[in-house]
Amino acid sequence: MRFLFLLLLISTVTFSQKEKDSVLYSKQKKRIIDIGVNAFYSKDTFILKKSTKQLLNFYNRRKDSTTLAKYYHFKALYQKIVYTNDSAFYYYHQSKNVSKLLKDSIAVGGRLLSIANLQREAKDFLGSEISSVEALEYLEPTKAYEFLEYVYNNLGIVSDELNQKNEAIKYYNRALEINKINKNEKGYLFIVNNLGFLYQKRTQHKKAIKYFKKGLTFDSIKIKYPAQYALLLENLAYSNFSLEKNKSVLKQYQEVLEIRDSLKDYSELSTTHINICLYYKEKKNVKQARFHAEKALTYAKQTHNNKRWLDALEELSQLSTGKKAIKYLEEHIDLNDSLIQKERTQKNQFAKIRYETTKKEEENSFLKIENDKKQDEIVRHKQQKVIGWLVAVAGFLSLGLSILFFVLRRRKLLYQAQLQKAQAREQERKQIAKSLHDEVAGDLRLLHRKLEKSQLFEEAQKLDAVKENVRQLSHQLSSVSFKKVGFKDQIINLISDYFELTFKITVKGLHEQDWSQVNSAIKRLLYLSIRESIQNSKKHAKATKFTIAFSIHKKNVFLDVTDNGIGFDTSVSKKGIGLHNLQERVEELNGTLSITSTVGAGTETHIQIPLNV
C-alpha cells in the first residue's frame, strides 16, 4: 500500500513538472513571437533574424508544427523587409502548407492574405484576386473578422486596379460591414480612404472629398492615428488642388510633411513631395517644384518606392534643361523598362512557386491515395483467402460475387479517371486564362502605352478594345468553383444575369435535389451546359422562353433544356465550337448529349450523366 502511494506521488510530481514545462514553453514562445512581430513593424532586421532563429531552435527541441509554421512566417517577414518578395512569397507558402496540415484555418487564411498582398504589389492583380478568394474559403467559416476585413479591403483595391468599379465598391462596403463587428478604427480609416481614392482616380473629386472628410472628422484621429490622418489630409488636398481650390492646399501639404517627417515615414514623404512639386509647377515656380521633385527622388530611392521614383524622374526631366533633362529622361526610360521586366519576372516566379507548391501537394495526395490502394489490396487479399475456404461450399455463388466485385471496382476506377481528366482540363483552362491575363494582356497594355506616347490615339483605342476582349476571354475561361457559392445559388445567379422581360427563364427540380452529394465536376458540366444553351437560344435562336429541368433517377442526373426559338435542321446544321466543347465535356464523364430541333418549333437539349459507378 505504501509502495502504491509513493508511486502515485512520483507520478503526480512528474506530471506537474511536465505541465510547468509546457506552460513555460508556451510563454517563452509567445514572448519570442511578440518581439519578432514588433521587430517587423519597426523594420529591425537584426531582432527579427534573432527571433526567427530562436523559433527554429524551439521547433528542433519540441518538434511542434505550429512553431515550424511561425518560423516560416518570420522568414517571409524578413524577406519582405529586405525587398526580396519572391523569397517572401515562397516562405509564406511553406508556412501556409504546414498550417494546412494542422487544419489551422485562420493561419492558412492569414498567410493567403499576405500572399495576395505581395501579388498585388507586383501588379499580379488576377493572382491576388485568386489568393484572396481562396483565403475567404478558410476565414468565412471561422468568422475571423480581423482577417476578413483586410481580405475584402484587398479585393476592393484589386477590383479597382482591374477597373471593376462596382465590384470594388461592393467589396469595400462588405469590409465596412465587418468593420462594424470588428470595431477596428484604423481599418475603418483605410477603407474610407480607399473609397475616396477610387473616385479620385476617376476624377470624381467632389465624391472623393466626401469620403476624405468623413475620415478626417473621426474622433481624435490626428492624435490617435497620425499616419491615417496624414494620408486622408493629403488626398483631400490633392482633390482640392484638382478642383482648383488652392486656398489651403499648400498649408495642408506642409502639415502632412511635418507629420510624416516626425513618423519617419520616408516612403510616403516621397508622395507628398511629388504633390507639392505639382502644386509649384502649376504656379510656374520652377525652382521650388524642382526642389521638391529632388526630395521625392531621394526618399523614393531610399524606400524602393518605384512609382514615386518614376514620377520624380519624369518631373525632373520636364523641370530641368539641357543635358540634365536628357539624363533624367533616360533614367526614367531605363527604370520603367527595368520595372516592367522585374514585374514580369516576379509574376513568373510567383507562378512557378505556386505551381511547384501545388504540385508537391498533389504528389503528397497521390502518395496517400497509393498507400490507401495498397491497404485496400491487403484487405482484398485477406478477403480472397477467406473466400478460398468457402469456395467448396459457396461454389458458383462465390465466383459470381468475385466477378461482380472486380467489374464494379474497374468501373469505379475508370469513372474516377474520367473525373480526374475533367479536372485536369479545367486546370488547363484556368492556366490558359491566367496566361492570357498576365502575359498577353500585359504585353498589349505596354504596347497601348507606347502607341499613346507616340500620339497614335486611334490605333491605341483599337488595341485597347483587343486588350479588353483578351481580358474578358480570360475570365470566361476561368474555372467555376462551388466552394464559396453553392450550385443552387450559382444557377440562380446565372438565370438572373440573362433573365429579361423578352427572354423569360423558368427552372424546375433545382431545389428538390441534394446537390451536396453530386461531384463538383458534374455540377460544373451542368452549369456550363446551361450557360452555353442560354447563350445559343438568346443569340441565335431568338427565343423568348427558356426552360431548365433537373432530375436525379437511378444514379443518373438528367438535364433537359428547351426553348421556343426558330429552331434548325439538325441534319444540315453543324455544331459550333461551343456545342463541340460541350459534347467533349459530357463524353469525359461517360454521359450522353442529344439535341432535337425542328425549324420554327424550338430546340430541346437532353444530357444524362452517371453520378458514380
SSE map:
Layout: H1 2-41, H2 45-62, H3 65-81, H4 85-101, H5 105-121, H6 125-142, H7 145-161, H8 165-182, H9 185-201, H10 205-216, H11 221-224, H12 226-242, H13 249-263, H14 266-282, H15 286-303, H16 306-319, H17 322-394, H18 396-453, H19 457-477, H20 487-498, E1 504-508, H21 520-539, E2 545-553, E3 556-563, H22 577-588, E4 592-597, E5 603-610
Parallel strand pairs: 1-2
Antiparallel strand pairs: 2-3, 3-5, 4-5
Helix pairs in contact: 1-2, 1-3, 2-3, 3-4, 4-5, 4-17, 5-6, 5-7, 6-7, 7-8, 7-9, 8-9, 9-10, 9-12, 10-12, 12-13, 13-14, 14-15, 14-16, 15-16, 16-17, 17-18, 18-19, 20-21, 21-22
Tell me about this structure.
The chain is mainly alpha-helical and 613 residues long. Among the domains are: 15-103, no CATH class; 361-477, no CATH class; 487-610, Histidine kinase-like ATPase, C-terminal domain (Heat Shock Protein 90, 2-Layer Sandwich). It is 77% helix and 6% strand. The chain has a five-stranded mixed β-sheet, with helices on one face. Helix 12 (226-242) packs antiparallel against helix 13 (249-263) and helix 13 (249-263) packs antiparallel against helix 14 (266-282). The longest helix has 73 residues, at 322-394. The chain starts with a helix and ends with a strand.
